[in-house]
Amino acid sequence: MTLDSYIQRSLADKTIISLKRNFYVSGNFYSKYGAKTSYRFYISNYLLKPSYISKESALQYYGLLTESVENYFTSVTSSLTRKFENRMGVFEYSKIKRDFFTNFRAVEFEIEDLKLNFLMAEKSKSVFDYLYYRGVRSVKEERELVEILDDYRIDADELTKEERSSIIKLLKDI
């Protein structure tokens, strides 16, 4: 039996699950952990490198977005804009200038005895990324930022004054 035929047979009997071309996860592992958000974020980082979770996914993670985004994972990359669809959901990657590929951190989690992590935008950076991809530019003061956030249904009250200042500074740097 060739490797290709073994992979095809394993896909057919769901012993393995395809996440993208030549990237698979075992069916048992997927059944146990595929619905865990932290594992999905980990997979999102792994499907396209370098990338970090941002925009809607990060805003929801931080409790800033008033609307729920299920099975749709948004990331930012310094590579090419891409989109992957698989059984876990839709993984969307938006390209950003290298100068703006910053302000993210590793979030650690455990599955069984495995210590894993995924890269997540800092709270203020996730807001910046969200606004950046919606064409918002050059916000000059906090009051203006709060109005814009309200228009996009982002809970500005969950941001500290320092985080708001950071967003304004990033928007001025465009």
Number of helices: 7
Strand element count:
8
Q: Write the H/E string, N to C.
A: HEEHHEHEEEEEHHH
Strand content: 25-35%
CATH topology value of the largest domain:
Beta Polymerase, domain 2
Trace the largest sheet across and list its strands: 3-4-6-5
- In the CATH scheme, the class of the largest domain would be Alpha Beta
List the helices and strands and how they pair.
Elements: H1 3-12, E1 16-20, E2 23-26, H2 27-33, H3 37-47, E3 51-53, H4 55-61, E4 72-77, E5 82-86, E6 89-95, E7 104-111, E8 114-121, H5 123-132, H6 142-151, H7 161-172
Helix pairs in contact: 4-5, 5-7
Account of the 3D structure:
The chain has seven helices and eight strands, in the order αββααβαβββββααα. By secondary structure, the protein is an alpha+beta fold. Helix content is 39%, strand content 26%. It folds into two domains: 1-33, no CATH class; 34-172, Beta Polymerase, domain 2. It has helices at residues 3-12, 27-33, 37-47, 55-61, 123-132, 142-151, 161-172, and strands spanning 16-20, 23-26, 51-53, 72-77, 82-86, 89-95, 104-111, 114-121. The protein is elongated and about 65 Å long. A four-stranded mixed sheet has the order 3-4-6-5. It has a two-stranded antiparallel ribbon with strand order 1-2.
Short description:
With 174 residues, this protein is α+β, with helices and mostly antiparallel strands.
